Amino acid sequence: MSEEKSFDFSFGSLSPLERRRLRFRNIPIRVVLPNLVTLLALCMGLTAIRFAVDGRFETAVLAVMAAAVLDGLDGRLARALKGTSRFGAELDSLADFVDFGVAPALLLYFWALHEIKDFGWFAALAFAIACALRLARFNVMAENPARPAWHADFFVGMPSPAGAVTALLPLYLHLSAMELPTSKGFVVIYILYVLLIAFLMASPIPHLSGKRVGKISRDLIIPLLFGAGVTLLLLAIYPMEVLTVLSVAYLAAIPFGLRRYNALARAEAEKPKAEDAGLAPPGAA
């Protein structure tokens, strides 16, 4: 039987009533809710572009941050409700490209990169392309069952939300008490920095994911809640300064993640050698 005959997409063998049921079958609300959160994140990314066009850059930054928070919630909500779906995964990737590839690139271009038009637009395009490649690679690798279990603790390349947050660091510094200028000499530095973040997104450099953090000890609940509360208060009062600190801290953590990944990779490579040595017969070389 040929491959074309093995699949029947016309439902010709089904009655009209059965065909109608397949076409309009009910979808559980637990599947719909995560997709609604994803669409809300997409709206935040598009709204950030709108505010950037209007020159309201601080509001645009906050819209991108809201999209990042919602992006972190939709996947966890889908797993908690057992509402994951292929449709949701594809929608999430498309929304991430707009929220963390297109929106930050346009925001930076409208803010300062346009001062050096060709080079600035090149940097914006490079960032958006790197985000698209990063998301495509993530989708392909997620379907690879041969990956070791410990790989789930790492991202291959900087994740797109982190790329968007860190790429806006020059804008945070401009909007903060430091008030970095937008003269052409500084814009060249901003462009080089954006290209560096684009490289980190497209590169295979591993980054810690934190997705499999275990349960929290009872002794740490109060300090963690206190720290989270203080961080949220500071974020509300000094948003640009806090985002600057978080971006610098994330960039500083990259070497530690790389070192941890290399240590686990070496341990994985030494396992077969240790097993072969243990199975070797007595007296063997």
Automatic annotation (TrEMBL):
Any one of the GO CC terms: membrane
Superkingdom of the organism of origin: Bacteria
Ribosomal protein found in the keyword field: no
InterPro entries assigned to the protein according to its UniProt record, in alphabetical order: CDP-alcohol_PTase-I, CDP-diaglyc--ser_O-PTrfase, CDP-OH_P_trans, CDP-OH_PTrfase_TM_dom, CDP_ALCOHOL_P_TRANSF_CS
Single GO MF descriptor: CDP-diacylglycerol-serine O-phosphatidyltransferase activity
GO biological process: phospholipid biosynthetic process
Reaction it catalyzes: a CDP-1,2-diacyl-sn-glycerol + L-serine = a 1,2-diacyl-sn-glycero-3-phospho-L-serine + CMP + H(+)
Class of enzymatic activity (EC top level): transferase
Keyword Nucleotidyltransferase: no
Chief localisation class: membrane
One Pfam match: CDP-OH_P_transf
Subcellular location: Endomembrane system
Annotated signal sequence range: none
Bilayer-crossing regions: 27-49, 119-140, 152-173, 185-208, 220-238
Keywords: Lipid biosynthesis, Lipid metabolism, Membrane, Phospholipid biosynthesis, Phospholipid metabolism, Transferase, Transmembrane, Transmembrane helix
Membrane topology annotation: Multi-pass membrane protein
EC number: 2.7.8.8
Family: Belongs to the CDP-alcohol phosphatidyltransferase class-I family.
Annotated protein name in UniProt: CDP-diacylglycerol--serine O-phosphatidyltransferase
Organism expressing this protein natively: Methylocystis heyeri
Species lineage: Bacteria, Pseudomonadati, Pseudomonadota, Alphaproteobacteria, Hyphomicrobiales
GN (gene name): pssA
